Every structure is written in C-alpha cells, then in structure tokens.
Amino acid sequence: MGRNRSRSRDRDPRRDRDRGRRTGGRRETWRLAGAQVRQQPAAFVAVAATTLLAVATVTLFATLIAGDVATPARLKDQAPGEDGLGVIAGIFAEGAIIVSLLVMVNCVGFAVRRQLRELALLRTIAATPRQIRMLVRRQVLTVVAVVAPPGWVLGWLGAHRLLPALKDHGYAAEAVDVPVTPLPLVLAVAASAVIVVGAAAIASRRATRGTPAEALADTASEPRRVDGLRRVLGGVALAAVGVLTLINLGRGGADAADGAFPVLLAGLAALAVLGPLAAGRVASWLGAVPRRVSPRIGWLADAHLQGHVRRLTAAVIPLAVLGALAVNFLLIPPTLARAGVGAGAEASSGFADPDENWLRLVELAMFGLIAGVAVVNTLVALTIDRRHELRLLQLLGATDRELLRVLTVESALVVAVGLVLAVAAGGLSLVTFSHGVTGSPLPSVPMARVLAIVAAASALAVPSVLVSGRMTLQSLGRSDHALAAPATP
Amino acid sequence: MGRPGLVVIKVGAGGAGFRTLETGGGSIASGRPEADDRSMIRLDQVSRVYGTPGTELRALADVTLRFAPGTFTAVMGPSGSGKSTLLHCAAGMDRPTSGTVWWGETEVSGLPERRLAVQRRQRVGFVFQSLNLIPAMTAAQNVELPSRLAGRRLAGDEVAGALAHVGLADRAGARPAELSGGQQQRVAIARALVARPDLVFADEPTGSLDRRTGLEILDFLRAGVDTLGQTCVMVTHDPVAAGYADRVVVLEDGRIVDDLDRPSTSALAAHLGAA
Fold this sequence. Notes:
Shape of chain A: globular
Strand order of the largest sheet of chain B: 6-7-8-3-9-10
CATH class of chain B: Alpha Beta
Structural class of chain B: alpha/beta
Oligomer: heterodimer
Number of strands of chain B: 10
Distance between the termini of chain A: 47 Å
Number of strands of chain A: 0
C-alpha cells in the first residue's frame, strides 16, 4: 500500500505544484464554508443571533459575579438580602446560561442539518470526513468570532442596567461595581465556541460517518431510525428526571421548592434530546384535529407538518423550552399563594416575596428574548425555504389566501406541539413543587396565566410564518422563474 | 497516465468531435496508450449486506469480477439487482460487508475512510445519475473543487479546457441552477475527468437526460477510455448506452448472471428482454 502511494506520486505530473497541499486544502474548506453559509442566510442569522445572546448572557453574569468577587467582604455585609450578589447572579445565571446554550445548540443543529446533503456530496467527490468536520467547525467558529465583540458590549451594558435594579431590590450591596475585566468575555467566547463546535460535530455526523455512499443515503431523507447516541442520552435524561422527581416528592416545604429547579433542568435536557422524536408523535396526534375540522385547508396543513416535522422541531424546541420555563415561573406564585392560605407557614420560603417575583419576571423576559429570537428566525428560514413548494401549490390551483390559511393552521399546530412538549418537560417540576408546599400534587392553574402563555407563544410563531409566507408568495407572484430556479433565493 | 490525452482534452471542443472519433472507431485500439496494472479493478468475493440482522438485504452476493485496464464495462440488470452497490463498492464509495476490492495493488476495501478519500481524489472520477453539483458554486468552481480539496490548484486553462471539452466554455461562471440538466451533467463529466483519473465510474449517467445529450455524455466516457487509457465502469439500464461499452456484465439478485463481450445493441435488447 505504501509502495503504491509513492508510485502514484511519482506518476503525477502536477506533483511539483503540490507544495503546501495542506494549506491549499484548508483554504478550500474556508471557501466552501463561506459559500455554504451564503446558501443558508436565514439559518445562519439564527445561529448568529442566538450566539450573540449567549455571549451576552454569559458576559453579563460573569461580569456581575466578578464585580461581587472584587468587592471587599466588609462592604458587602451591608447588603440587606441573605444571599450575596454572587449567589443570586449564580442561580440566575445557571438558568439563563442553560437556556441560551440550549437554544444555540438547537440553532447550530438546524443550520448544519440543512447542509447535510451538500456535505455528503462533498464526501463523494473525495472530501475526507475530517475536512467536512473542519468545514462546519469553521462556519460556526466564524459566527462566534463575528458576534463576540457586539455580544460582549451587549452583556456589559446589560450588567450596567441590571446591577442598579438588583441593588434596588436588595440583591446587591451598594458598593458593588461593574468591573472592567476581559475575563467574562474570554469565558463567554470560550464556552460558546466549545458548545457550537460540539453541536456542529454532532449535527454533521450523518454526513461524516461511514462511507460516502452511506452518507449520501443517510442524508437523502429524514432519518428513520433513532440515533444510538440520542437514545443513550435520552435514557440518561429521562432517568435523571425520574430520580430527581422521586427525591423531590419525598421532601417538604422550602426543600421541595429548591429541589424543583433541578427537576426542571433535567426535564429541559430530556426535551432537548428527545424533543425531536416526541414532536413527530405529538404532531400526528394533534394534526388529526384540523384534518377533521377542515378537510381541505386543515388536511393540507397537517400533511405538510407531518412531512416536515423533523425540520420544524428547530422551531418547536425553543418554543417548548420557553413554555416549560413559563409554566413554572408563572404557575409557581399562584400555587404558593394557595399554600399561604392553606398551610400558612410555607409562605416564608421566599417565593411570595415581591422582590423574588421581580427577579423571576426579569429572568423570564430574558429567556423569552433568547428563545423568541430562535423561534422567529427558524420559522422565517423554513417558510422562505418553501417557495418552491408554495409555487407548486399555486400551480395546482391554490389561491394565496388559501395558502396563507394553510400556513396559519400549520403555525398554530407548531405552537400546540411546542406547548404540549412544554408541559411534558416542565410539568413534573411544578408537580413536585406543589406537592412539597401545598401537600397536593396539583398546582394552581389560573386560566389567565395559561392564556397568557398560549398567547405569547402564538404571538411569536404565527406572525413570523405569516409575514414571511406573505412576502414569499408576493415574490412568487412577481417571478415566472420560481420553478426553474428553486435553489436561488 | 494521460500523455496523449492532454492533446485531446485541449483540442476537443464538444461532443461532435468525439462522435467522429468513436464512430470512425475501427482503429480505436491503435491509438490507445498501453494501460498499466494500476488501472485494473478487481473485486474478490464481494458481498454487501444492508440493514440489521433479521431484516437484512443482500445487495451483492459473492461477486468476483475483474475490469481490465483501459476498458469500458457496462453493468446492467433490473432495479434492485445490486448494480449501484457494485459500482459504489468498486469505486471506494461503499465498503463490502465481506470480500476485497483492489485498484491495481492497493486494497481499497481495507483503507480507513480518510486514506480512501485521498486515494479516490487521486485516482477516481465519478459521475452520478442525479445532478450532484454543489449549488453554491459556479461551474468552474465545481470542476476544480476535488483538486482543491486535495490541496492542489489546477491551472486556469485546465479548468477552462475541461469545460470547453464538454462544450461549456462560455458557462464557466454559471451556477447549477442556471444550467439545464444536460449542461449540469456535462459539468459533472468535466469535474470527473479534469484531474485525468485512471478509473472512471458512472451511475446511470444518461438516466435523466434527453437522448442526444445522453449520447454526448457516452462519447466523453468512451473517449476517456480510448485516448487516456482510463478504466471505465458504468451502470445503465439503456441497451444503447451499453452499446458504447466493450463488455456488458448483467446482474440479478446480487449475482452475475451474464458477462458479454461487445454485444450489439439489438442482441443486448433481445437478451435483456428474455432475462
């Protein structure tokens, strides 16, 4: 074999030009990475936006923690709250960072999966698996490099805005200041880089593993079989949910309140891993409704959704993450209020504290921003993608008005699937909380709050689909070449 | 490899030139450079099984085949007979479940994926049935892509020459979406042949094309064999396409059921009809 290789070199008349062949191959992967990004502008805007927010979030909290560490202990003694800023920022940061990273991973996966077909093609024209991995790594690292400076500025400004508010609510000592240190930025960029690279490597696996023929076959259709890795991780996450739930059901009062958060985190992890599989099931159950109600529009919307479920999960998962958090944050206070009436003493756990509620609303607003950006971007990208399909439906006799109604029903289904998954992922932590503080596993569920969650999710999803759908239909109306050139946006 | 071929690639300006070469082709063999063992392809008891135990599908069953250097072989058979699997295994695109595949003295079935890719980019050109160009790149960029992935830069006139060879000199800057199906397939041919590979594989290269364009594509493949001494293996279901080959191998249920030497088109059609 070795002999063969050297022979092939001798025979190659272009061998002289092969100096620097490694760097040449590298340059090509850069060029390809850029070309692929330009093919998927909307998907990479989503990656950029969520990465920007992830960098900003990590920077913000790391800055606050650094500020706390830099403040001498004797000055901090004056802080009225029990917990110092570092502890608050840490707990707050935990949730915000997990949510932003989860959503970022989801968006990276979405952007990479959309290129799988082309990546497999590159394998058939003799790109090595390593070159493919390098290509996607470069795409996502370039995004991190581009958004890191503005993300840092955003996080730093955020720290300046949040610190006075935290002081007002008694979560920070007056002496604490926003420090000037590069450390938070370094931390934020490093964490984002590691996570996007990992997510990109996992998302590109179908194009990098096996032979080129297998890669081509694997990427030709949506995966039918469940990935072994996903199965293992999903099993671990579900086991964690089960164990943490049982542990927390055995606790009472404030301990159960504290233990609810880990249950929620495990639920979110399970959602991230198993959500894409569960979404298909849930969509096929829920799809029966519009199919029955409206045999034309509803049937079309349902048929579409079933065909695209795997792609739509990119929008469903952030929606479900946000929903799971909202379910907890918005339903815990009324449950506690009931505990206050019924059991009395438990109200001391701090959840009834208006300052605590303020903190939770700030948190929820922040999560909403992060997940909202991902939902809107993904749905817009998916809708624009479908110009070819919409054009076909137009040719088959569908009017624009009918198509917009199809899109509306579809986006409503996306919201419904997202919320069902949200309840599945976030419900258990709420149950353990309720069990701990009120003695009953049934939390208080005020209709107004439920409607607020549904309305917020719909407000994110439906207009993004409708506005981009309308724009797509208008551009189709203007162009006669839509069918001839589906690949050019 | 390819000493006389240089001339042809640069001079040939389109399908017509090669048509003459081919149809005037009694003397093809005399112009053929001596092919060496490197461009021989050998499959030794190759089996390929898909799926998991219980639901397994045997696409290839103990196939032993030898493709002589500088020959053009057509692989035929009903759909599901294992034609494409055979081609993928022979081209190093897929791995046999058992058995070995050799290119000259290199056992490619045992190479790790990365080294196999390196071997392929040095020695193999592949043309697919479906249009397998990278949409984001121009025709010229698509043609030079494999070489660039190998860290090698083709001279500008090599790319231009390859595109001119397939009659697309003026479409170098066009992206796949702006080209017709036939033009895209010609770009794919230029991409497969530009690095002057020893081995050329084609999977139903004319399947999605009109007859005339299809014949042009076959001319390009034939010319590569005759003038460059390439070893070409082509999967096809079209007796006319198979008529361009020196030899026709017929597969059924993953086994070779016939091995014909230069059959005429009509004989082939009759034969396949009977099978």
